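Quick question: who can interpret this fold?

. . .
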Amino acid sequence: MSSMYPPYEGGAAGQVCQRCRMPLAPNEIYCSNCGYYNAPASNQPAPSNPGAPWGGGAGGYPPTTYGQQYPGSGVPSQWGQSATPVPAPPPPSSPAFGGAPGYYGGAPSSPPPSPGYSFPDQVGAPPYPSPAPGGYPPQAGGYQVPPLPPAQPPERPRRGPNFGLVALIAVVVLVLVLGGIGVLALTHHGGGTTGTLTPTPAQSTGAPTATPLFSDNFANNNHGWDLTSVPGRYSVKLGNGQLLLEEDNNRILPEFVPGKTFDDFRLDVDVAITKGTQENSGFGVYIRASANQNTELATYYRFAMYGDSTYAIFKGVVDSSGQPLDDQKLVGYLSTTALKPIGQVNHVEIVAKGSTMTLSVNGQTLNSVTDSSYKSGSIALYVSNLPDTPKGVVVAFSNLAIYPAS
Protein backbone atom coordinates (compact mmCIF):
# COMPACT_ATOMS: atom_id res chain seq x y z
CA MET A 1 0.00 0.00 0.00
CA SER A 2 1.37 3.36 -0.96
CA SER A 3 1.98 6.05 1.64
CA MET A 4 -0.46 8.95 1.86
CA TYR A 5 2.53 11.30 1.50
CA PRO A 6 5.09 10.92 -1.32
CA PRO A 7 8.63 10.42 -0.15
CA TYR A 8 10.82 13.50 0.12
CA GLU A 9 14.37 13.62 -1.02
CA GLY A 10 16.80 13.60 1.80
CA GLY A 11 14.03 12.80 4.30
CA ALA A 12 14.42 10.32 7.07
CA ALA A 13 12.85 7.18 5.73
CA GLY A 14 10.09 5.94 7.94
CA GLN A 15 10.26 8.79 10.48
CA VAL A 16 6.79 9.41 11.86
CA CYS A 17 5.25 11.67 14.53
CA GLN A 18 5.75 10.15 17.95
CA ARG A 19 2.22 11.13 18.95
CA CYS A 20 -0.16 10.73 15.96
CA ARG A 21 2.14 8.42 13.96
CA MET A 22 1.77 10.52 10.80
CA PRO A 23 4.79 10.57 8.45
CA LEU A 24 7.04 13.60 8.80
CA ALA A 25 8.53 15.62 5.97
CA PRO A 26 12.32 15.78 5.74
CA ASN A 27 13.80 17.88 8.55
CA GLU A 28 10.31 18.40 9.95
CA ILE A 29 10.44 18.41 13.73
CA TYR A 30 6.93 19.74 14.40
CA CYS A 31 4.19 17.52 13.14
CA SER A 32 2.04 19.29 10.56
CA ASN A 33 -0.90 17.21 11.72
CA CYS A 34 -0.88 17.60 15.52
CA GLY A 35 1.94 20.09 16.12
CA TYR A 36 3.90 17.76 18.39
CA TYR A 37 7.63 18.35 18.69
CA ASN A 38 9.66 15.37 17.43
CA ALA A 39 13.32 15.32 18.31
CA PRO A 40 15.56 14.79 15.26
CA ALA A 41 17.26 11.49 14.90
CA SER A 42 20.56 11.26 16.71
CA ASN A 43 22.43 10.96 13.41
CA GLN A 44 20.80 14.11 12.00
CA PRO A 45 21.54 17.65 13.19
CA ALA A 46 18.65 19.81 14.15
CA PRO A 47 17.80 22.38 11.50
CA SER A 48 18.68 25.95 12.24
CA ASN A 49 15.22 27.02 11.06
CA PRO A 50 16.21 30.62 10.38
CA GLY A 51 12.62 31.65 9.75
CA ALA A 52 11.36 30.58 13.15
CA PRO A 53 8.99 33.28 14.40
CA TRP A 54 10.45 33.54 17.96
CA GLY A 55 14.11 33.61 16.99
CA GLY A 56 14.93 30.84 19.44
CA GLY A 57 16.97 27.67 19.16
CA ALA A 58 15.58 24.25 18.42
CA GLY A 59 11.86 24.45 18.10
CA GLY A 60 11.83 28.24 18.32
CA TYR A 61 9.54 28.28 21.37
CA PRO A 62 10.99 29.97 24.42
CA PRO A 63 9.72 28.57 27.68
CA THR A 64 6.90 30.33 29.47
CA THR A 65 7.12 31.10 33.16
CA TYR A 66 3.38 31.40 33.73
CA GLY A 67 2.21 27.82 33.26
CA GLN A 68 0.44 28.43 29.92
CA GLN A 69 1.18 27.73 26.25
CA TYR A 70 2.09 30.57 23.94
CA PRO A 71 -0.56 31.73 21.50
CA GLY A 72 -0.69 29.85 18.26
CA SER A 73 0.94 26.60 19.35
CA GLY A 74 -2.35 24.78 19.21
CA VAL A 75 -1.04 21.97 21.43
CA PRO A 76 -0.95 21.31 25.15
CA SER A 77 2.11 20.35 27.13
CA GLN A 78 3.55 16.93 26.48
CA TRP A 79 1.77 15.06 29.32
CA GLY A 80 4.87 13.10 30.33
CA GLN A 81 5.97 11.81 26.91
CA SER A 82 9.30 10.12 26.92
CA ALA A 83 10.66 12.06 23.96
CA THR A 84 13.90 13.92 24.45
CA PRO A 85 13.06 17.45 25.70
CA VAL A 86 14.20 20.49 23.84
CA PRO A 87 16.77 22.52 25.75
CA ALA A 88 15.31 25.90 26.67
CA PRO A 89 17.22 28.97 25.56
CA PRO A 90 17.95 31.52 28.27
CA PRO A 91 15.40 34.31 28.53
CA PRO A 92 16.43 37.84 27.62
CA SER A 93 18.18 39.66 30.44
CA SER A 94 15.78 42.60 30.57
CA PRO A 95 12.70 42.23 28.37
CA ALA A 96 11.20 45.60 27.67
CA PHE A 97 7.89 46.88 26.55
CA GLY A 98 7.49 46.07 22.85
CA GLY A 99 10.10 43.29 23.01
CA ALA A 100 10.18 39.97 21.26
CA PRO A 101 6.85 38.17 20.73
CA GLY A 102 6.17 35.38 23.16
CA TYR A 103 6.89 37.53 26.26
CA TYR A 104 3.64 39.48 25.96
CA GLY A 105 5.48 42.68 25.24
CA GLY A 106 5.87 43.68 28.89
CA ALA A 107 8.08 43.56 31.90
CA PRO A 108 8.22 40.28 33.82
CA SER A 109 6.17 41.79 36.65
CA SER A 110 3.07 41.93 34.39
CA PRO A 111 1.12 38.65 34.00
CA PRO A 112 0.39 37.48 30.42
CA PRO A 113 -3.14 37.52 29.05
CA SER A 114 -4.97 34.23 29.36
CA PRO A 115 -5.55 32.38 26.06
CA GLY A 116 -9.02 31.54 24.89
CA TYR A 117 -8.43 27.89 25.72
CA SER A 118 -6.99 26.06 28.68
CA PHE A 119 -4.32 23.43 29.11
CA PRO A 120 -3.01 21.46 32.02
CA ASP A 121 -0.58 23.48 34.10
CA GLN A 122 3.03 22.94 33.25
CA VAL A 123 4.84 21.14 35.98
CA GLY A 124 7.31 23.33 37.80
CA ALA A 125 5.99 26.64 36.50
CA PRO A 126 6.11 29.09 39.40
CA PRO A 127 2.91 31.03 40.03
CA TYR A 128 2.86 34.71 39.30
CA PRO A 129 3.29 36.59 42.56
CA SER A 130 0.25 38.57 43.62
CA PRO A 131 0.79 42.29 44.09
CA ALA A 132 1.02 43.73 47.56
CA PRO A 133 -2.18 45.22 49.01
CA GLY A 134 -2.79 48.74 47.82
CA GLY A 135 -0.38 48.33 44.93
CA TYR A 136 2.71 48.90 47.06
CA PRO A 137 5.54 46.38 47.25
CA PRO A 138 6.26 44.80 50.63
CA GLN A 139 8.84 46.65 52.65
CA ALA A 140 12.30 45.20 53.06
CA GLY A 141 12.85 43.31 56.25
CA GLY A 142 9.13 42.88 56.87
CA TYR A 143 8.69 46.55 57.84
CA GLN A 144 5.09 47.66 57.75
CA VAL A 145 3.90 51.24 57.48
CA PRO A 146 2.84 52.19 61.04
CA PRO A 147 -0.81 53.12 61.58
CA LEU A 148 -1.82 56.66 62.34
CA PRO A 149 -1.63 57.45 66.03
CA PRO A 150 -4.94 57.47 67.84
CA ALA A 151 -6.61 60.72 68.47
CA GLN A 152 -5.36 62.44 71.53
CA PRO A 153 -7.77 62.68 74.51
CA PRO A 154 -9.25 66.09 75.36
CA GLU A 155 -7.38 68.24 77.84
CA ARG A 156 -8.53 67.85 81.40
CA PRO A 157 -9.72 70.97 83.22
CA ARG A 158 -6.90 72.82 84.96
CA ARG A 159 -8.47 72.80 88.38
CA GLY A 160 -9.42 69.27 89.21
CA PRO A 161 -12.39 67.04 88.43
CA ASN A 162 -15.82 68.24 87.42
CA PHE A 163 -18.24 67.97 90.32
CA GLY A 164 -21.12 69.45 88.33
CA LEU A 165 -22.87 66.10 88.04
CA VAL A 166 -22.92 65.79 91.82
CA ALA A 167 -24.56 69.18 92.14
CA LEU A 168 -27.16 68.29 89.48
CA ILE A 169 -28.04 65.11 91.36
CA ALA A 170 -28.29 67.24 94.50
CA VAL A 171 -31.01 69.39 92.93
CA VAL A 172 -33.02 66.35 91.81
CA VAL A 173 -32.69 64.60 95.17
CA LEU A 174 -33.61 67.79 97.00
CA VAL A 175 -36.83 68.13 94.99
CA LEU A 176 -37.75 64.51 95.66
CA VAL A 177 -36.95 64.73 99.37
CA LEU A 178 -38.85 67.98 99.88
CA GLY A 179 -41.81 66.67 97.89
CA GLY A 180 -41.98 63.46 99.93
CA ILE A 181 -41.61 65.29 103.22
CA GLY A 182 -44.36 67.71 102.22
CA VAL A 183 -46.74 64.84 101.55
CA LEU A 184 -45.94 63.32 104.96
CA ALA A 185 -46.48 66.65 106.66
CA LEU A 186 -49.94 66.98 105.11
CA THR A 187 -51.03 63.43 105.90
CA HIS A 188 -49.52 63.21 109.41
CA HIS A 189 -50.48 66.37 111.25
CA GLY A 190 -47.64 67.26 113.56
CA GLY A 191 -45.81 63.99 112.90
CA GLY A 192 -42.75 63.07 110.82
CA THR A 193 -39.87 65.25 109.67
CA THR A 194 -40.30 68.71 108.21
CA GLY A 195 -38.51 69.97 105.09
CA THR A 196 -36.45 72.48 107.07
CA LEU A 197 -34.18 71.17 109.80
CA THR A 198 -33.96 73.23 112.94
CA PRO A 199 -30.27 73.85 113.52
CA THR A 200 -28.83 72.73 116.80
CA PRO A 201 -27.54 75.70 118.81
CA ALA A 202 -23.77 75.52 119.02
CA GLN A 203 -22.16 75.27 122.41
CA SER A 204 -20.32 78.43 123.26
CA THR A 205 -16.69 77.77 122.49
CA GLY A 206 -15.58 81.38 122.60
CA ALA A 207 -12.91 82.90 120.39
CA PRO A 208 -9.86 80.68 119.97
CA THR A 209 -6.94 81.78 122.10
CA ALA A 210 -4.27 79.62 120.42
CA THR A 211 -1.94 80.99 117.80
CA PRO A 212 -3.34 80.27 114.33
CA LEU A 213 -1.64 77.68 112.18
CA PHE A 214 -2.56 79.91 109.23
CA SER A 215 -4.50 83.15 108.84
CA ASP A 216 -5.09 85.75 106.15
CA ASN A 217 -7.12 88.96 106.07
CA PHE A 218 -6.61 89.20 102.28
CA ALA A 219 -5.16 92.68 102.37
CA ASN A 220 -2.41 91.50 100.01
CA ASN A 221 -1.03 88.30 98.53
CA ASN A 222 1.90 87.80 100.88
CA HIS A 223 1.00 84.13 101.26
CA GLY A 224 1.20 83.45 97.53
CA TRP A 225 -2.34 82.42 96.55
CA ASP A 226 -2.76 81.14 93.00
CA LEU A 227 -4.36 84.04 91.12
CA THR A 228 -4.48 82.31 87.73
CA SER A 229 -7.57 83.40 85.78
CA VAL A 230 -9.08 82.59 82.39
CA PRO A 231 -11.59 85.20 81.16
CA GLY A 232 -15.00 83.68 80.53
CA ARG A 233 -14.18 80.57 82.55
CA TYR A 234 -12.93 81.46 86.02
CA SER A 235 -11.04 84.14 87.91
CA VAL A 236 -9.31 84.64 91.27
CA LYS A 237 -8.88 88.11 92.77
CA LEU A 238 -7.42 89.13 96.11
CA GLY A 239 -7.41 92.46 97.92
CA ASN A 240 -9.41 94.87 100.07
CA GLY A 241 -9.93 92.17 102.66
CA GLN A 242 -11.50 89.63 100.30
CA LEU A 243 -10.59 86.61 98.22
CA LEU A 244 -13.01 86.64 95.26
CA LEU A 245 -13.58 83.36 93.40
CA GLU A 246 -15.62 83.49 90.19
CA GLU A 247 -16.75 80.44 88.19
CA ASP A 248 -18.44 80.99 84.80
CA ASN A 249 -18.38 77.51 83.29
CA ASN A 250 -20.71 75.40 85.47
CA ARG A 251 -17.88 73.81 87.43
CA ILE A 252 -16.20 73.91 90.82
CA LEU A 253 -13.24 76.28 91.23
CA PRO A 254 -11.04 75.35 94.23
CA GLU A 255 -8.40 77.64 95.70
CA PHE A 256 -5.86 75.85 97.90
CA VAL A 257 -4.43 77.32 101.08
CA PRO A 258 -0.87 77.81 99.79
CA GLY A 259 1.93 75.58 101.02
CA LYS A 260 0.15 73.97 103.95
CA THR A 261 -1.29 70.61 105.00
CA PHE A 262 -3.31 69.95 108.13
CA ASP A 263 -4.46 66.99 110.18
CA ASP A 264 -6.52 68.13 113.21
CA PHE A 265 -7.68 71.76 113.12
CA ARG A 266 -10.46 74.28 113.49
CA LEU A 267 -11.19 76.50 110.47
CA ASP A 268 -13.08 79.80 110.63
CA VAL A 269 -13.98 81.88 107.57
CA ASP A 270 -16.65 84.39 106.50
CA VAL A 271 -18.38 83.72 103.16
CA ALA A 272 -20.95 85.58 101.03
CA ILE A 273 -22.40 84.84 97.59
CA THR A 274 -22.08 88.20 95.82
CA LYS A 275 -23.28 87.06 92.39
CA GLY A 276 -25.59 84.16 91.63
CA THR A 277 -29.04 82.75 92.19
CA GLN A 278 -30.52 80.17 94.51
CA GLU A 279 -30.51 77.59 91.72
CA ASN A 280 -26.98 78.03 90.35
CA SER A 281 -24.69 78.90 93.27
CA GLY A 282 -22.71 77.11 95.94
CA PHE A 283 -19.54 77.36 98.02
CA GLY A 284 -17.62 75.35 100.55
CA VAL A 285 -14.38 73.91 101.86
CA TYR A 286 -12.26 70.86 100.99
CA ILE A 287 -10.31 69.36 103.90
CA ARG A 288 -7.72 66.57 104.17
CA ALA A 289 -7.37 66.64 100.39
CA SER A 290 -4.64 64.84 98.45
CA ALA A 291 -3.58 64.76 94.81
CA ASN A 292 -2.39 61.95 92.55
CA GLN A 293 -1.07 61.63 89.01
CA ASN A 294 -4.56 62.20 87.57
CA THR A 295 -5.91 65.16 89.51
CA GLU A 296 -5.05 67.67 92.20
CA LEU A 297 -8.18 66.60 94.10
CA ALA A 298 -8.16 62.82 94.35
CA THR A 299 -9.31 62.10 97.92
CA TYR A 300 -10.87 64.55 100.38
CA TYR A 301 -13.85 65.53 102.48
CA ARG A 302 -15.99 68.35 101.05
CA PHE A 303 -18.35 70.55 103.05
CA ALA A 304 -20.84 72.07 100.58
CA MET A 305 -23.35 74.91 101.08
CA TYR A 306 -25.76 76.25 98.46
CA GLY A 307 -27.65 79.42 97.60
CA ASP A 308 -30.98 77.76 98.39
CA SER A 309 -29.93 77.30 102.07
CA THR A 310 -29.12 73.59 101.78
CA TYR A 311 -25.90 71.78 102.63
CA ALA A 312 -24.19 68.40 102.23
CA ILE A 313 -20.97 66.63 103.17
CA PHE A 314 -19.13 64.49 100.60
CA LYS A 315 -16.18 62.12 100.46
CA GLY A 316 -13.94 62.05 97.39
CA VAL A 317 -12.78 58.61 96.23
CA VAL A 318 -10.80 57.11 93.33
CA ASP A 319 -10.74 53.74 91.57
CA SER A 320 -7.86 51.25 91.54
CA SER A 321 -6.08 53.22 88.80
CA GLY A 322 -6.41 56.54 90.65
CA GLN A 323 -9.19 57.96 88.48
CA PRO A 324 -11.74 60.06 90.40
CA LEU A 325 -15.15 58.49 90.97
CA ASP A 326 -18.41 60.20 91.86
CA ASP A 327 -18.38 61.70 95.34
CA GLN A 328 -19.83 59.61 98.13
CA LYS A 329 -22.50 61.58 99.96
CA LEU A 330 -22.05 61.27 103.72
CA VAL A 331 -24.73 63.82 104.68
CA GLY A 332 -27.43 65.70 102.74
CA TYR A 333 -28.90 67.33 100.96
CA LEU A 334 -30.48 69.07 103.95
CA SER A 335 -32.14 72.45 104.31
CA THR A 336 -31.31 74.79 107.19
CA THR A 337 -32.32 78.24 108.37
CA ALA A 338 -28.82 78.77 109.68
CA LEU A 339 -27.58 79.70 106.20
CA LYS A 340 -28.28 83.32 105.34
CA PRO A 341 -29.57 84.23 101.86
CA ILE A 342 -27.53 85.39 98.90
CA GLY A 343 -25.72 88.66 99.54
CA GLN A 344 -25.34 88.16 103.29
CA VAL A 345 -22.23 86.95 105.13
CA ASN A 346 -22.19 83.48 106.69
CA HIS A 347 -19.62 82.53 109.32
CA VAL A 348 -18.50 78.95 108.62
CA GLU A 349 -16.69 76.80 111.18
CA ILE A 350 -15.27 73.32 110.52
CA VAL A 351 -13.58 71.23 113.21
CA ALA A 352 -11.64 68.07 112.26
CA LYS A 353 -10.35 66.04 115.16
CA GLY A 354 -9.37 62.43 114.60
CA SER A 355 -12.09 60.69 112.59
CA THR A 356 -14.82 63.17 113.60
CA MET A 357 -15.60 66.27 111.52
CA THR A 358 -18.21 68.88 112.43
CA LEU A 359 -19.80 71.67 110.36
CA SER A 360 -21.24 74.78 112.01
CA VAL A 361 -22.70 77.90 110.37
CA ASN A 362 -23.36 81.20 112.14
CA GLY A 363 -22.78 79.63 115.54
CA GLN A 364 -25.09 76.65 115.00
CA THR A 365 -23.87 73.07 114.52
CA LEU A 366 -25.41 71.57 111.39
CA ASN A 367 -23.96 68.07 111.38
CA SER A 368 -21.06 65.78 112.28
CA VAL A 369 -19.61 62.82 110.40
CA THR A 370 -17.19 60.10 111.43
CA ASP A 371 -14.83 58.61 108.86
CA SER A 372 -11.24 57.47 109.30
CA SER A 373 -10.21 57.13 105.63
CA TYR A 374 -8.20 60.36 105.40
CA LYS A 375 -6.27 61.73 108.36
CA SER A 376 -4.52 64.79 106.90
CA GLY A 377 -4.11 66.82 103.73
CA SER A 378 -4.65 70.17 102.06
CA ILE A 379 -7.44 72.68 102.61
CA ALA A 380 -9.13 74.52 99.72
CA LEU A 381 -11.91 77.11 99.56
CA TYR A 382 -14.19 76.82 96.54
CA VAL A 383 -17.03 78.36 94.52
CA SER A 384 -19.51 76.24 92.58
CA ASN A 385 -21.52 77.13 89.47
CA LEU A 386 -24.00 74.25 89.34
CA PRO A 387 -24.45 72.37 86.03
CA ASP A 388 -27.31 73.16 83.66
CA THR A 389 -27.94 76.51 85.36
CA PRO A 390 -27.16 80.12 84.38
CA LYS A 391 -23.43 80.75 84.18
CA GLY A 392 -21.66 83.06 86.57
CA VAL A 393 -21.22 82.80 90.35
CA VAL A 394 -18.97 84.96 92.56
CA VAL A 395 -18.19 84.17 96.21
CA ALA A 396 -16.24 86.42 98.60
CA PHE A 397 -14.14 84.84 101.38
CA SER A 398 -12.74 86.92 104.25
CA ASN A 399 -11.15 86.59 107.70
CA LEU A 400 -9.70 83.12 107.20
CA ALA A 401 -8.05 81.53 110.24
CA ILE A 402 -6.99 77.92 110.91
CA TYR A 403 -6.28 76.92 114.52
CA PRO A 404 -5.14 73.75 116.23
CA ALA A 405 -8.07 71.54 117.21
CA SER A 406 -8.82 71.88 120.91
